[in-house]
Amino acid sequence: MREFGVRELKKSLSKTLKAVARGQQVRVTAWGRPVADIVPARASTGDDRIRELVAGGRLAAPSRARPRRAPSLAKCRKLASSLILDERDAER
After folding, report:
1. How sure is the predictor about 52, in pLDDT bands with cuts at 50, 70 and 90?
2. CATH number of residue 18's parent domain
């Protein structure tokens, strides 16, 4: 796998993407630390493995769709620490 720093990648992006299209993989580094891997678009992904596990019966597909947005937070007039202390006192 070839490695490019961010600055070097910026200079040769078109050439690098052509190499990736031919099947090469490229690792991008920033200050010598890996930050990203560029792989061909049709490369095997985790989704393929998940499909294999579902097909083999080793993993169950979700029974319902994921919600479109996260649930809203509950409103409370007391601090969390006060609620915990009250709950501890009630258990004693």
Report:
1. confident
2. 3.40.1620.10
Please tell me whether residue 67 adopts helix, strand or coil conformation: coil
- In which element (H, E) is residue 83 found? helix 80-91
Domain-located, residue 6: yes
CA–CA separation, 26 and 19 (whole Å): 9
* Mean pLDDT along residues 40-64: 80
Domain count for the chain, please give it: 1
Q: Which domain holds residue 35?
A: 2-55
Residue 61 identity = A
Give per-residue pLDDT as tens, 4-35.
899 999 999 999 999 998 889 999 999 989 99
Question: DSSP secondary structure string, 4-66?
Answer: EEHHHHHHTHHHHHHHHHTT--EEEEETTEEEEEE--TTS--HHHHHHHHHHTTSSPPPSSPP
Element (H, E) at 2: strand 2-5
